[in-house]
Amino acid sequence: MRLTLLLAVLSWIAMVLVDLALVFGEQNDMVIGVPQEASRFLLILYFISLFYYFNQRIKRFEDLDFINLLWKVFATGLVTTIIAFVIKMVLASISTSRLGQDAVWVNLLYHINIGLVSIYLISTFVVWKELILYQRSTQLIKRWNLFEYALLIGMFLVFFVEPYSSEFIISLTFLFLFGLFQSVNLKWVPYLNFKQKWQAVLLVLLASVYLYFFFDSLIDYSKAYPLINDLLDNAFILALFSFIFLYSVFSLLVILFNLPTSSVFEQKLVEALNFQRLSQSIQAGQSEEQVYDILIDSSMSAVYADAGWLEIYSSGDDCEFQICKSLSKEEASKTRKVLTSVKSMGNLLQKHELPTKKEHVGATLRDSSFKSVLIFPIQVNKSHIGNLVLLKEVKDGFNKEMINIVSTFVSQASISVENYELLSEALVNERYKEELKIAKRVQRALLPDQLHHNDSFEIVAFSEAADEVGGDYYETYNISDDKYALILGDVSGKGTSAAFNMSQMKGVFHSLSPLKLDVKDFLKYANQALGSCLEKHSFITVAYFIIDTAKQEMEFGRAGQCPSLFYEKKTERAFYFDTKGMALGMVRNEHYEQYIHVNKQRYEAGDVLVLYTDGIIEARNSQKEEFGMDRLAAVLQEHAEKSAEEIKDKLMEAVYTFCEGTHVDDDYSLVIVKFI
Amino acid sequence: MVKIEEKKETGYLLITLIGEIDASNSLELDQTIARALKSGEQHIVVDGSRLEYISSAGLGVFMSYIEDMKAQNVKFVLFGLSDKVYSVFRILGLDELLMIKADKSEALEV
User: Fold this and answer.
1) Which of B23, B61, B92 sits opposite A586 (nearest CB)?
2) Within 10 Å of residue A152's Cβ, how many Cβ atoms?
3) pTM above 0.80, yes or no
4) What ipTM, to 2 d.p.?
5) Which of B27, B30, B55, B56 is the best substitution to test chain A (most A C-beta atoms within 10 A)?
6) Which fold has domain B2-105?
7) CATH 3.60.40.10 matches A443-675
């Protein structure tokens, strides 16, 4: 860019020197060895480099609006005309003196004028180009490029055609018509708002004034002085003058004619922007109220409503005036009463359960200060959540276009609110999930890591919940050196409520265990404690064992829990303890005691005790067949010789293989005790 | 999935349970029994012959009304339970608290 500027300056200086030399030579009858063609050629070089310079310069202002572009024209024009004016004044003041008659001197000043005129014309030409090519299409650009080439050829005409010969006139007419043809591209004008249009008119007028000044002074020079290089003989310059003038005239006319309708165009732009705001409002993390706010604002401005409100049903058929514009709530409710008395509107204003196909109702009112009304039901997720009511003081105040635009606003707002609701639902769900995860961690911590035992038995446990949290529970307690309490419980139901009851069970176990109660008393007090705190239809099944390693005996009670499985090494058989018993919380009074059955079982080394919850035996495969007690016993019998850990693995493996592929929907737990 | 049918017969109300009762639909059973008790039924007979499965939540419903029935002197009888369903009642000890009969005629005799 600097290069082109430098080239422009250098070619201008060279041209000045050549021309002045020629003039000087003529004056003194000296033959200067430079042809006149050289100076013409330098002038063309000057034009082209100026053109490239301004062409590149304008790219830097690409994001400037039209007014700023026109302002550039005005500013360039101002500077160049002032300088040109000063030169003219200087010339006029010395015209009578000898210096004023000196051809070299006059030509020097005229060459400065050439430079200034060219700068103004070419820079304006580039701005006009920017305006014409505002909405670019391939055709338009092709035509414009042709025009530029034609102008380029026009520059070289000086070499071939005598000024003002018929060829010259024909070429000039051709360029003039071509410029006229380009000047109809005025698509930038409608994008100006009202105020900008007035500014544009002023700026274009000023640009034309400069144009006139330059043209006029060129004529003056041409008449008054013998010029070596008269710009008025240059077809390119004349074509530029005519084109810039034509485009200014066209712009002025079009802007003036567009003035009265500019408000419509502005309105459409605002509507488009509002539409964008409505659709973007959710992304900005706004709430429903803000969407409603934008909705009523943009709708009212779209239809020039005098008043309006937005009502949202709070509960049942009652509605709340969410936003009232240009009228008070009292006035709104008064007007609403008038509206509901008209049948078609009353029906629409009432909350309807089913989505209505009617998008709006418009009507003329009599007994109100508002003569026309437009109602739009707002439907979110197929349910009618409220209405938008627009009022005008004039009769028949709403036309079809207005109705269309508002209904687009309403549906866009509905989508925004829908999205908002979905998003907040998703957020709430996410939070619940997070809380459940915490609950799961807390609950996992309620199950013991270490199970009490001594050298005479191994013990392992396993528990898995169907949901995030479960209702199964196991724990041990070291009553004395050789006495251990073992409990496996299952809370009725599953999920969170089961998990809460499970933690209550743990509390009961921890309070009762240190009392070193026997099985009967433990179950009795546990029932008593839980009976007062469980909900009406909840109960807890437990298997409670006290293992006495000194006596090699276990005492146990089955409170509704699945019969425990026992493997007897001596007979190599696995069997269930078929005992009676009732779940804790079933009978919440002293009668519970009579349902407690305490049993005793001796054991030997190699025997295995398996406690399990019903999730294990009720695990179903894809054929809805249950794993069942028989399979459990068979698997135990097969692997009873292994360690407790291995037995647990084998049992779970058997359950998983059995119900392969199907989702386990109950909590299941296992406790294995292997006597050594 | 459970389907609960109610049929008013002379002298008793027949409730038929069809399908499976678990935590998700036990409320339906709860409402049926609550309604029957509220309307002052004195003899409620539950046909469980087409009940395929009942979870602990469903059993909790039966359990929760035992005291109310006793207080209102309501005869509440189940009959026709499959072995599998019956064993669930038995394991919990509910068989000792509820009247469970083999068939309808026995259920009506009580």
Assistant:
1) B92
2) 14
3) no
4) 0.91
5) B56
6) Transcription Regulator spoIIAA (3.30.750)
7) yes
